[in-house]
Write a structure and sequence with these properties.
The protein contains 11 helices and 6 strands. With about 325 residues, it is of the alpha/beta class. Strands 1-2-4-5 form a 4-stranded parallel sheet, sandwiched between helices. A two-stranded parallel sheet has the order 3-6. Helix 2 runs parallel beside helix 4. The longest helix is centred in the middle third of the chain and has 20 residues.
Length: about 325
């Protein structure tokens, strides 16, 4: 972190050192007692209007290269934002649905074709950082996991929508958002199973409740399918003043994470509906703290015990 007051921005009891990731010498000093790295440091979208592209490059690219040079097992937090290229934005604007699985087909065309590259300096620098991770594995055999995180920040303003923030978050659980708790859980599991990655990129997102790329159709048709398949969802939504999505324009694929390190996201759209159903059946207030059966056995960690409540799904976990 380059800010002189960085230590004041996080809980002091969790901080031993504040270091600029672009400063390799300082990184080397503080990493001497570390056995692995969760590399989450980045300049991202909120900094776009206040930081020059050179600062994005210094933190996101040079900083990542410095982390990799430490030679420690590394879990790198990337972003799904880099897959929303100008080409994908155009498809969405035309009413299509973009099924994004993170494969090379997400970047159709020549690598230098601007319409198929990340649309901003955040995405472009994170893509370069991903390539550094792949090279570190291929050339040096470094244990490195790349996790593309989908939306998990509690944004207050989202594309000028008239829907409430909880409503937007609920709709985005249909393959576009991940809870913070599930995100943290994935990072821990990725480190534990890091030797299984072999340079493969995984996307962290709440699962699409049906088969991948099912059903066929445009964004409006997919939304109609969701409403039909979960016929009580509109009524459950209405009790909170929410609206079901009229279009579903983007769905991301979480299957790699499941296959590589047995990730099991708990905060999903279906689990939210189940909480709302139980809330309705028990006639409890919306901030009740009852749990639901998640199928977890007794062999769980602390994150597994985080209760699936309305409050935690749409507030505490996001």
């Amino acid at each position: 972190d380059k800010n002189s007051n960085a230590k004041n921005n996080v809980s002091v009891c969790t901080v031993d050192h504040c270091v600029d990731v672009a400063d390799y010498k300082r990184l080397l000093d503080v990493a001497s007692s570390c056995s692995a790295v969760f590399h989450t440091a980045a300049l991202h979208a909120p900094y776009a209007s206040t930081h020059h592209v050179s600062e994005f490059y210094s933190t996101n690219v040079v900083g990542t290269d410095n982390i990799l040079q430490l030679g420690l097992p590394t879990v790198f937090t990337s972003t799904t934002s880099l897959t929303v290229t100008p080409g994908v934005k155009s498809r969405i604007a035309n009413g299509e649905i973009a099924w994004l699985d993170g494969s090379p087909s997400d970047f159709i065309g020549a690598p230098t074709d601007a319409v198929n590259l990340p649309r901003n300096k955040y995405g472009r620098t994170k893509l370069l950082a991903e390539k550094l991770c792949a090279r570190a594995f291929e050339e040096k055999g470094l244990d490195c996991a790349v996790l593309r995180a989908s939306r998990f920040f509690p944004e207050d303003i989202m594309d000028g929508s008239s829907l409430s923030v909880p409503n937007i978050k609920a709709n985005e659980l249909l393959g576009r958002r991940v809870s913070l708790v599930d995100l943290l859980d994935a990072h821990v599991h990725a480190l534990i199973n890091i030797k299984a990655f072999h340079g493969v990129i995984s996307t962290l997102v709440a699962p699409w409740p049906w088969s991948w790329r099912h059903p066929e159709g445009n964004a409006k048709a997919i939304a109609a399918f969701v409403a039909k398949e979960r016929s009580d969802a509109a009524v459950l939504y209405a009790k909170h003043g929410w609206k079901m999505p009229e279009m579903i324009s983007c769905v991301r694929d979480f299957r790699n994470a499941v296959e590589l390190f047995n990730w099991k996201p708990r905060f999903t759209w279906d689990s939210l509906l189940e909480v709302l159903r139980q809330e309705q059946s028990k006639n409890n207030p919306v901030n009740n703290e009852h749990d639901i059966n998640t199928g977890n056995d007794s062999n769980t960690n602390d994150l597994d015990k985080f209760p699936l409540t309305y409050k935690n799904i749409l507030e505490g976990a996001f």
